[in-house]
Amino acid sequence: MEQKKPEPKTKPEDLKDGQAADSENLSWQQFAEATTPRAFCQSWLPLQCCILKRVCCAMILLGNPDSGPFTPVAVWPDARLNLQHLTGAAERSLKERRGLLVEKDTDPASKNHFPENFHIAYPIEVAGKIHGTVVLGVKEQDRNVVQKIMRQLHWGAAWLEVLIRRTQTATSDEVSKRLQTALDLLASAVENERFHEAVMAFVTRMANRLECDRVSIGFFSGLHTKVTAVSHSADFGKQTNLVRAIESAMDEAIDQQAVVVYPTPPETIPLATRAHAELERQHGSGTICTVPLEVKGKPIGGLTLERPADKPFDPVTVELCETIGAVVGPILQAKQMEERWLIHKAVGSLARQLKRLLGPGFLVRKLVVLALIALAAFFTVFEVDYRVTAPTVIEGEVQRALAAPFNGYIKEAPARPGDIVTEGDMLGLLDDRDLKLERIKWFTEKQQNSRQYDEAMAKHDRAQIHILMARIEQAAAQMSLIDEQMARCRIIAPFDGVVMSGDLSQSLGAPVERGQVLFEVAPLDEYRVIVEVDELDIGAIVVGQKSDLVLPSIPGKRFPFVVEKITPVSIAKEGRNYFRVEGHMVQFQSHLRPGMEGIGKVTIERRKLIWVWTHKAIDWLRLQMWRWFP
After folding, report:
1. Which parts of the chain register pLDDT below 50?
2. What is this structure's pTM?
3. Which of 6, 213, 504, 520 has the smallest count of CB within 10 Å of its CB?
4. In Å, how far are 390, 410, 491, 505 from 428, measured between CA atoms?
């Protein structure tokens, strides 16, 4: 469906000369003062579109190099416009890594059907990586003019490449530096016995000695670093944004296993410093140095130092910080391990036991563990047929209800539930004495009216003739109705089957009303199996699955059936919800009867034995966790 591009409210060519000049001057001023990639693009795009005539709309997409995602950072002429129709050319340009000229197709069903005559897309590639693309919508029909626009766009896009290179330089100018050392600073960590007192004294004295605005130290808590102490600040928990920024800077240095200095000195190896740059931008840290703390080659935390911008970290200071961190890390970790909670110590003890298990000695322990592993491996590897078990009942494929044809009384009821009947057998008989008397009444009335009709014919009394003729017809109709009702006094079996309900042998002479169900009959050779599948297992049931039924009356034999229908409505019964699943018997069984109940098992697929035994408990546990967790 063709997407109609909304017309911009104001185009540069629609403005007066003075307004256009003011707009262009404003754009140039914003272009010169831009400090972020987004601001740069938002000022560059209007200038470029003013230079390139016949441009209706334009968009710049930027993202992570090569990987994306690429999102719009600038839209012209109005940021509120929906330029979804430009995304096709943009995606092709990013995928093919080359400039594209897409011409409009007149076919409305075509993918190239859009409001403009041409779409021009030019990728922004720096150092062999795609950082984004520029897309223009052009209404010019002359291809020579369009080619000229493409060449001008090629030259203008160099500004975006310069922007990206500047950004890369800004992030790669931040270099590493490592831990610090000085005996007087280490003494502050050693002389205090308690861990928190030691770290607080250490970072405060380090901030004073190295002329830092703030020194922070953090240790691993889970998968991320958690700030433990900040210099000159006993209560730093309220400064949430600051703490998070420092923790991100520590994680950044630890992930790279290197000292990170921001801004990066030009003579050092460039490292990722995005978190440090964010810390500096949000809190005005000036220069930042983060040193990973390690013990036996494994990282345990980080040390972040912040200075004013006019006091950068020189290589000598970085080396000092790296040395201090190398020595103070094991000391502070030992104090922290000593003050752990009991549960944490238990976990550590478990780790030591694991080392013993994998090391020399402790033969009995190893044999027990090997036996448990073998048992677990058996349950994990061995597969069985996973089957859903549910209560099952047999019903007739067709169940005919026989109702009373009129109000009357029961005279005979030879049939009882469970009786085998053939088509035409009498199941019950209603008393017809009242009907016979009623018929005699109408027959007598008909005879009287007939005699009067003959007399009226002899007298040529036409009015009386018509009246008597109507009475005779009425009596005949009533006699026909009574004859029909008398014929229906016999309740007969409509087909060969079994009587499912209707024990009237103890109700002889009892009145019945018209429409009251007296008997229900089901066929003997057409059954359907009803499986009451619990709502927890209904997701595994599909049509066509093979199943087996075992009945209490015939416990040694299985009756196969196939699932053919799943009722999508749950039914509440005996404190549980279940779905009604219907199936048909694979083979006819003469000794089966409607109403028999048993246990059915629907075969799903091959599953691990351990899963078959534990999946219900695991599903229940997941449900409880979902219920109680926020």
Report:
1. 1-16, 171-181
2. 0.36
3. 6
4. 38, 8, 5, 9
20's CB contacts (< 8 A; 6+ apart) are: 12, 13
pLDDT value of position 291:
92
Distance, in Å, from the CA atom of 320 to the CA atom of 185, rounded to the nearest integer, reads 11
Q: Is 331 exposed, middle or buried (0-12, 13-18, 19+ CB in 10 A)?
A: middle
Instruction: Phi first, then psi: give them for residue 128, nearest 5 degrees.
Output: 75, 10
Q: Which long-range contacts (CB under 8 A, 24 or more apart) does 336-345 make?
A: 336/195, 336/219, 338/195, 339/194, 339/195
Distance of CA 546 to the CA centre of its chain: 31
d(CA 302, CA 329): 9
Q: What's the pLDDT tens digit per position in 478-535?
A: 888 888 877 778 887 887 777 877 777 777 878 888 878 888 887 777 778 889 888 8
pLDDT in tens, 332-358: 888 877 777 778 778 878 887 887 777
Laid out side by side, the sheet with 224-230 consists of 224-230, 214-221, 298-307, 287-295, 260-262
Neighbouring residues of 387: CB distance < 8 A, sequence distance ≥ 6: 601, 602, 603, 604
HEC secondary structure over 443-509: HHHHHHHHHHHHHHHHHCCHHHHHHHHHHHHHHHHHHHHHHHHHHCCEEECCCCEEEEECCCCCCCC
Report how far residue 258's alpha carbon sits from residue 438's, in angstroms, rounded to the nearest whole number.
112
Q: How far is CA 142 from CA 86, 118, 135, 518, in A?
A: 20, 10, 19, 90
CB atoms within 10 A of CB 364: 7
At the second CATH level, the architecture of 12-172 is 2-Layer Sandwich (3.30)
> What are the residue ranges of helices labelled H in 339-460?
342-358, 363-381, 433-459
Strand partners, 395: 528
d(CA 518, CA 402): 6
Domain ranges of the chain: 12-172, 183-338, 341-381, 400-521, 526-628
For residues 269 and 402, what is the distance between their CA atoms, to the nearest angstrom? 95
